[in-house]
Amino acid sequence: MDDMQKQGAWEERASGNAAGETEGRTEGDLSLAAQAAVIVNELAEAGRLGPGKIVVVGVSTSEVAGVRIGTGGALEVADQLLQGIRQAADKWGFHLVYQCCEHLNRALVMERSLLESLGLREVSAVPVPGAGGSMAAAAYRSMTEPVLAETVEAHAGIDIGETLIGMHLRRVAVPFRPSLRYVGSARVNAAWTRPPLIGGERAVYRNPETSGSLLCD
Q: Does the model's pTM come out above 0.70?
Protein backbone atom coordinates (compact mmCIF):
# COMPACT_ATOMS: atom_id res chain seq x y z
CA MET A 1 0.00 0.00 0.00
CA ASP A 2 1.52 3.36 -1.03
CA ASP A 3 1.60 6.45 1.15
CA MET A 4 -1.49 8.08 -0.34
CA GLN A 5 -3.48 4.87 0.18
CA LYS A 6 -2.28 4.66 3.79
CA GLN A 7 -3.34 8.27 4.37
CA GLY A 8 -6.75 7.56 2.89
CA ALA A 9 -7.18 4.43 4.99
CA TRP A 10 -6.32 6.33 8.17
CA GLU A 11 -8.80 9.07 7.32
CA GLU A 12 -11.52 6.51 6.65
CA ARG A 13 -10.94 4.82 10.00
CA ALA A 14 -10.70 8.06 11.96
CA SER A 15 -13.70 9.62 10.24
CA GLY A 16 -15.94 6.62 10.79
CA ASN A 17 -18.56 6.23 13.45
CA ALA A 18 -16.96 5.16 16.74
CA ALA A 19 -20.08 3.36 17.84
CA GLY A 20 -18.15 0.32 18.99
CA GLU A 21 -16.54 2.35 21.76
CA THR A 22 -19.91 3.37 23.22
CA GLU A 23 -22.08 0.42 22.27
CA GLY A 24 -25.37 0.41 24.10
CA ARG A 25 -24.97 3.99 25.34
CA THR A 26 -27.26 6.79 24.20
CA GLU A 27 -27.26 10.54 24.69
CA GLY A 28 -30.11 10.22 27.19
CA ASP A 29 -27.95 8.10 29.49
CA LEU A 30 -25.44 10.92 30.02
CA SER A 31 -25.46 14.47 31.35
CA LEU A 32 -24.75 17.29 28.92
CA ALA A 33 -21.26 17.64 30.38
CA ALA A 34 -20.59 13.93 29.94
CA GLN A 35 -21.91 13.94 26.37
CA ALA A 36 -19.59 16.81 25.46
CA ALA A 37 -16.61 15.10 27.12
CA VAL A 38 -17.20 11.86 25.18
CA ILE A 39 -17.24 13.72 21.86
CA VAL A 40 -14.14 15.80 22.62
CA ASN A 41 -12.20 12.75 23.79
CA GLU A 42 -13.09 10.78 20.66
CA LEU A 43 -12.11 13.68 18.39
CA ALA A 44 -8.82 14.18 20.24
CA GLU A 45 -7.92 10.53 19.78
CA ALA A 46 -8.90 10.42 16.11
CA GLY A 47 -7.18 13.70 15.27
CA ARG A 48 -4.09 13.04 17.40
CA LEU A 49 -4.64 16.28 19.27
CA GLY A 50 -2.39 17.39 22.07
CA PRO A 51 -0.32 20.30 23.41
CA GLY A 52 0.01 23.16 20.96
CA LYS A 53 -3.06 22.18 18.95
CA ILE A 54 -6.19 24.35 18.72
CA VAL A 55 -9.78 23.16 18.74
CA VAL A 56 -12.62 25.50 17.77
CA VAL A 57 -15.98 24.93 19.40
CA GLY A 58 -19.29 26.21 18.07
CA VAL A 59 -22.48 25.64 20.06
CA SER A 60 -26.13 26.59 19.77
CA THR A 61 -27.54 26.16 23.25
CA SER A 62 -30.96 26.77 21.71
CA GLU A 63 -30.59 23.66 19.55
CA VAL A 64 -29.33 21.68 22.53
CA ALA A 65 -32.52 22.67 24.37
CA GLY A 66 -34.66 21.60 21.41
CA VAL A 67 -35.57 24.94 19.80
CA ARG A 68 -34.39 26.72 16.68
CA ILE A 69 -30.94 28.29 16.75
CA GLY A 70 -30.97 31.83 18.11
CA THR A 71 -34.35 31.57 19.83
CA GLY A 72 -33.72 30.04 23.24
CA GLY A 73 -30.10 30.36 24.36
CA ALA A 74 -29.31 29.42 27.94
CA LEU A 75 -26.21 30.11 30.01
CA GLU A 76 -27.09 27.15 32.22
CA VAL A 77 -26.77 24.81 29.24
CA ALA A 78 -23.55 26.50 28.16
CA ASP A 79 -22.03 26.09 31.63
CA GLN A 80 -22.74 22.35 31.61
CA LEU A 81 -21.20 21.88 28.16
CA LEU A 82 -18.22 24.01 29.10
CA GLN A 83 -17.52 21.76 32.05
CA GLY A 84 -17.32 18.63 29.91
CA ILE A 85 -15.40 20.23 27.06
CA ARG A 86 -12.77 21.70 29.36
CA GLN A 87 -12.42 18.48 31.33
CA ALA A 88 -11.52 16.62 28.14
CA ALA A 89 -9.26 19.40 26.86
CA ASP A 90 -7.30 19.41 30.12
CA LYS A 91 -6.70 15.69 29.68
CA TRP A 92 -5.21 16.12 26.19
CA GLY A 93 -3.55 19.51 26.66
CA PHE A 94 -4.81 21.39 23.60
CA HIS A 95 -6.16 24.94 23.41
CA LEU A 96 -9.88 25.71 23.18
CA VAL A 97 -11.38 28.64 21.30
CA TYR A 98 -15.10 29.36 21.14
CA GLN A 99 -16.92 30.78 18.14
CA CYS A 100 -19.36 33.65 18.63
CA CYS A 101 -22.52 33.93 16.57
CA GLU A 102 -22.79 36.03 13.41
CA HIS A 103 -23.75 39.16 15.37
CA LEU A 104 -20.06 39.33 16.34
CA ASN A 105 -18.90 38.13 12.90
CA ARG A 106 -18.13 34.67 14.31
CA ALA A 107 -15.16 36.03 16.24
CA LEU A 108 -13.41 33.68 18.64
CA VAL A 109 -13.14 33.76 22.42
CA MET A 110 -9.70 32.75 23.67
CA GLU A 111 -7.11 33.57 26.29
CA ARG A 112 -4.99 36.62 25.52
CA SER A 113 -1.83 34.55 25.90
CA LEU A 114 -2.93 32.33 23.00
CA LEU A 115 -3.89 35.28 20.80
CA GLU A 116 -0.51 36.93 21.35
CA SER A 117 1.48 33.74 20.87
CA LEU A 118 -0.22 33.16 17.49
CA GLY A 119 -0.06 36.80 16.43
CA LEU A 120 -3.79 36.97 15.77
CA ARG A 121 -5.77 40.14 15.16
CA GLU A 122 -7.78 41.22 18.21
CA VAL A 123 -11.29 42.62 17.83
CA SER A 124 -13.25 44.43 20.49
CA ALA A 125 -16.50 43.20 22.02
CA VAL A 126 -17.77 41.34 25.05
CA PRO A 127 -19.98 38.40 24.04
CA VAL A 128 -23.35 38.17 25.76
CA PRO A 129 -26.21 35.72 25.08
CA GLY A 130 -28.00 38.21 22.81
CA ALA A 131 -24.91 39.13 20.78
CA GLY A 132 -22.24 36.47 20.64
CA GLY A 133 -24.22 33.57 22.04
CA SER A 134 -24.54 31.85 25.39
CA MET A 135 -21.61 29.50 24.83
CA ALA A 136 -19.24 32.31 23.89
CA ALA A 137 -20.49 34.36 26.82
CA ALA A 138 -19.96 31.50 29.27
CA ALA A 139 -16.50 30.79 27.90
CA TYR A 140 -15.54 34.48 28.05
CA ARG A 141 -16.45 34.83 31.71
CA SER A 142 -14.63 31.60 32.61
CA MET A 143 -11.23 32.69 31.25
CA THR A 144 -8.41 34.43 33.06
CA GLU A 145 -7.84 37.15 30.45
CA PRO A 146 -10.35 36.66 27.64
CA VAL A 147 -10.13 38.39 24.27
CA LEU A 148 -11.76 38.03 20.87
CA ALA A 149 -9.78 37.15 17.76
CA GLU A 150 -11.08 37.89 14.29
CA THR A 151 -10.17 34.47 12.95
CA VAL A 152 -8.01 31.42 13.57
CA GLU A 153 -6.83 28.30 11.74
CA ALA A 154 -7.74 25.50 14.12
CA HIS A 155 -6.46 21.92 13.96
CA ALA A 156 -9.91 20.50 14.73
CA GLY A 157 -13.41 21.58 15.56
CA ILE A 158 -16.70 20.54 17.13
CA ASP A 159 -20.03 21.97 16.00
CA ILE A 160 -22.96 21.34 18.32
CA GLY A 161 -26.17 22.55 16.72
CA GLU A 162 -24.84 23.16 13.18
CA THR A 163 -23.48 26.65 13.84
CA LEU A 164 -20.96 26.38 10.95
CA ILE A 165 -17.34 26.48 12.12
CA GLY A 166 -15.62 25.62 8.84
CA MET A 167 -14.31 29.14 8.28
CA HIS A 168 -11.99 28.64 11.26
CA LEU A 169 -10.53 25.24 10.31
CA ARG A 170 -7.21 24.63 8.60
CA ARG A 171 -7.05 22.93 5.25
CA VAL A 172 -7.69 20.02 4.78
CA ALA A 173 -10.69 19.16 6.97
CA VAL A 174 -11.43 15.47 7.57
CA PRO A 175 -15.02 14.85 8.76
CA PHE A 176 -15.31 12.91 12.00
CA ARG A 177 -18.40 11.05 13.18
CA PRO A 178 -18.46 10.69 16.97
CA SER A 179 -20.33 7.86 18.61
CA LEU A 180 -22.83 10.35 20.04
CA ARG A 181 -24.42 12.20 17.12
CA TYR A 182 -26.50 14.51 19.33
CA VAL A 183 -25.93 16.59 22.44
CA GLY A 184 -29.34 17.14 23.92
CA SER A 185 -31.44 17.81 20.83
CA ALA A 186 -28.58 19.37 18.84
CA ARG A 187 -26.92 17.48 16.00
CA VAL A 188 -23.15 17.21 16.28
CA ASN A 189 -20.57 17.56 13.51
CA ALA A 190 -16.82 17.46 13.97
CA ALA A 191 -13.60 17.43 11.99
CA TRP A 192 -9.87 17.21 12.38
CA THR A 193 -7.45 18.53 9.78
CA ARG A 194 -4.33 17.40 7.96
CA PRO A 195 -1.81 19.24 5.76
CA PRO A 196 -2.60 19.15 2.03
CA LEU A 197 -0.85 16.36 0.15
CA ILE A 198 1.09 18.07 -2.64
CA GLY A 199 2.68 16.67 -5.75
CA GLY A 200 1.64 13.81 -8.00
CA GLU A 201 2.25 10.10 -8.28
CA ARG A 202 6.01 10.54 -7.70
CA ALA A 203 5.53 12.44 -4.45
CA VAL A 204 6.24 10.75 -1.12
CA TYR A 205 4.76 11.68 2.24
CA ARG A 206 7.30 10.24 4.66
CA ASN A 207 11.11 10.20 4.74
CA PRO A 208 12.32 7.55 2.29
CA GLU A 209 15.03 5.18 3.48
CA THR A 210 16.91 5.56 0.20
CA SER A 211 16.75 8.11 -2.58
CA GLY A 212 14.74 7.20 -5.63
CA SER A 213 16.07 7.16 -9.16
CA LEU A 214 13.59 9.78 -10.40
CA LEU A 215 15.00 13.27 -9.97
CA CYS A 216 13.50 16.72 -10.48
CA ASP A 217 16.83 18.46 -11.16
A: yes
